[in-house]
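Hey, why these numbers?
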Amino acid sequence: MAYEKINWESTTPINTTNLKKMEQEIYENSVSNIYSTGEQRIGTYLGKPLYRIVITGNIADNTTLLSNVDILVDVEGTGDINSLYRVIPYFEVYNNLNFILTVNKTPSNEVKAVVFRLGEPTTANDCNIALKYTKTTD
């Protein structure tokens, strides 16, 4: 595309179409829309920096996912228990079968996986868990 000199005296530089394109580009490139296995600062929560990280892979019950977490703000994702993908957090009790797939924050400021099948600790496979949190160190 060749550069075209614009006469600013007779042209409005931002029209509705251009403004919508700019807004869409800003939204698509905004850090709040980036889901990464690396920690991302995505905003603030109650005056503290807010972070997000995605944990992937097979996750066993009681696995420590994060440390130094002050407030666990949100958890979302999926994991496979018993060959079925479950949305996290997931709780099911049916005919004495129970499945639990979630996370919790411990008193020692760690975020741990909670994965149970038939009342016994197990492993959730192929997990993608997005955690939003603040840190004790901020």
Notes: Residues 36-135 form one domain. The radius of gyration is 22 Å.
